[in-house]
Amino acid sequence: MTPVRDIQDEYGIIGRERELTTALAVLGSGRHLLLEGPVGVGKTTVALAVCAHLGRPTVRVDGDDRYSESKLTGWFDPPLVLSRGYGPESFFPGPLVQAMRDGAVLFINELNRMPESVQNVLLPALDERIVSVPHIGVVHAADGFQVVATQNPVEYVATGHLSEALRDRFEHLALGYQDAEEEAAIVRRETGCGDDGLVGLAVRLTRATRRHPRFRKGASVRAAVAIVAVAARLEGDDVLRRAMDAALATRVELRDDIDIDMASALDELYDQVVVRGEDVEAAGGDDGAGPKA
């Protein structure tokens, strides 16, 4: 089997042949990799699966706007500093220093949610394979050190732009939504559901949110998985509708320029896709790769 097929089989990845091939080439060449795409398209899954397939240990960081420079590089323990002073025995390495010393992959989830000052700490590590730590000195990266990061499109809430200098140190890999057939296969795998009718409707409803004019941001395949999983455990009337409400309300965002609430927007979606059986995707419009302007 090919390396891509091996990864798909071992880590349960459906499709993504092009993306896996590119990720293998980038990491195999010793370059740093930035995966970009909407929430729920499998950026983290692809990144970690490729690292594992290549036998690369990873040190993980989950980015947020409160992440500090010292959390990334390391910090000194105050009681130990008082008793022993500033030195290696009082220092606790952060994930960046740990990955550099171990020759591991530093995996940063949602890099563009980190403050710019924290992002800037990465520049010498990416460019010169060094980082300066006060009272410790310069840390040099061992062979094998690489950075793999993910980011959501900048239009998403709580995300920002990466600096041009930082982006220039990465090779870029875009991940979009997969086609309907692959998304249905993901839903069947995740839920074990053998009801193709239910799976098909869940996927159609989810994909319709990415093009429907009421929604600024559509849902990922996670919503279709949730619809099927919840519907399978409901009884009574309107099972699909109740499952859809539960799964989509937290995963979509309404456009700012329309005067309608979430319940009414979901009413329209359900009526169009399930009651009237219309194909929202065939109607054209936005490709659903991210929030609409």
Structure write-up:
With 293 residues, this protein is of the alpha/beta class. It has two domains: 3-174, Rossmann fold (3-Layer(aba) Sandwich); 180-283, Helicase, Ruva Protein, domain 3 (Orthogonal Bundle), CATH 1.10.8. It has 13 helices and eleven strands. A five-stranded parallel beta sheet has the order 2-5-8-1-9. Strands 3-4 form a two-stranded antiparallel ribbon. It has a two-stranded antiparallel sheet with strand order 6-7. A hairpin with a 3-residue loop joins strand 6 and strand 7 (137-140). Helix 1 (3-11) crosses helix 3 (43-53) and helix 11 packs antiparallel against helix 12 (239-248). The model is unreliable at 285-293 (pLDDT under 50).
Which structural traits does this protein have?
about 290 residues, alpha/beta, Rossmann fold, Helicase, Ruva Protein, domain 3, 2 domains, five-stranded parallel β-sheet, two-stranded antiparallel ribbon, about 45% helix, elongated, disordered C terminus
Strand order of the largest sheet: 2-5-8-1-9
Q: What is the CATH superfamily classification of the largest domain?
A: P-loop containing nucleotide triphosphate hydrolases
Structural class: alpha/beta
Mean of all residue-level pLDDT scores: 89
What share of the residues lie within helices? 40-55%
Query: What is the CATH architecture term of the largest domain?
Result: 3-Layer(aba) Sandwich
According to CATH, the fold-level topology of the largest domain is: Rossmann fold
Using DSSP, what is the number of strands? 11
Q: Can you tell me the number of structural domains?
A: 2
The quaternary organization reads as: single chain
Structural shape: elongated
Secondary-structure element series: HHEHEHEHEHEHEEEHEHHEHHEH
Low-confidence stretches: 285-293
The helix count comes to 13
| Percent in strands | 5-15%
Q: Major sheet: size, sense and barrel closure?
A: 5 strands, parallel
What Rg, in angstroms, do the CA atoms define? 22 Å
CATH top-level class of the largest domain: Alpha Beta
Distance between the termini: 43 Å
